[in-house]
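A protein record in our archive is deliberately plain, so that people and models can read it alike. The tokens are whole numbers drawn from a learned vocabulary of local backbone shapes. For reference, a complete record is included directly beneath this paragraph.
>
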Amino acid sequence: MNYSSTAILAFLVHCIINHDVLRNRHYKNTTKAGKSYRQLIFAVAAFYISDALWGILYDAHLIALVFADTILYFALMAATIFLWTCYVSDYLQENSRFIKALYYTGWVFLASISLVLIMNLFVPVMFWFDENGVYHSANLRYAILIIQVIMFMSSACYVLLISEGKNDSSKRRHRAIGMFGLAMAVLVIIQVTYPLLPLYAAGWLLGTCILHTFVLEDMKEENRLELEKMIQRDEEQKQQLGSARKLAYKDTLTGVKNYNAYFEAEQDINERIENGELKEFGVLVFDVNGLKTMNDTYGHEAGDRLLQDACRMICKTFKHSPVFRIGGDEFVVLLEGQDYENRESLLHDFDSQIEMNLQNGTTVVASGLDTFRSSEDKTYRQVFERADARMYERKSILKAQQI
């Protein structure tokens, strides 16, 4: 039972240390190294179970079951070695001859062990049990262990060698993988001398703990830092996009919203009308008088100043509503909320100012207001056209007064 206790303890520690890898399907959809690492962790867990069962069945002298479990034990051992070579190859991502040789050696090792285990069913080339149920190792088993020592030792030396040219975090991970190989090689050598000690399980436990601590956690930290950088870049891009959007929707002369923003606002209002979400709003249409005459007489700079003065007057009066410049001398204000409720008094104040400007010979702006009629209007355009018609009526009145 002492033999099984070590394997059971190794299995429990293995599951605790690697619970995120065993449970998280993310590792199945990540890099090739992540996939092969998860497969390796599952194979090692299965190996521990087989190793624990072997001790229990051996102590109970259930020779037939012990024989079957021994076959499974060596098959899982071969699988872990094969997956180890896959993980090292996928992690290093190198096209060197050594990595190719290690990868194909893993395949050959897996195929060879499978063939030997089939042969052992008929001829005890790897192990056997005597008539008293005592386990015996054949020479081929020792040869296989020596091959494993060579594989672990050579891979460890290679990884440690190439680690010198890496940066600090990558060097630390490479050295951890190298130490894994060295630890496994040493324990397999001892296992050759003491075949009934659970040193192989102890080696995998030590090795996977090294990988988890110095490789997996280090990679997680790097991924976290990279994720933070990506989030920061995304925020910066959003800010840049927001700035670009503001520029794209801003009238450069007056600073209010331009026709692009107006078109989008019109689409939004139409959707809200169609969905029954918008119950009330008003549209104010403005037209600046005398812009063409100003441009022709005093130049376009004077005309620009006229537009800016007119815009300031509109924004000052209707300060709680979006203002749009939709044409050369035409502005629109969409009234909602407070400005909508006070629309009559605000428009009266604005028109009063225009009357004074008309007498003083300063900026004159014609205006027209109309509101949404939920029982009649199906689109924003219907409201706008009524407001636009009233603006032209007001424009005619102002022109008549100028004469």
User: Anything to note?
Assistant: The first strand starts at residue 127 and ends at 129. The domain at 259-402 is CATH 3.30.70.270 (Alpha-Beta Plaits). Residues 296 and 310 are 18 Å apart (CA to CA). The chain is about 70% helix and 5% strand.
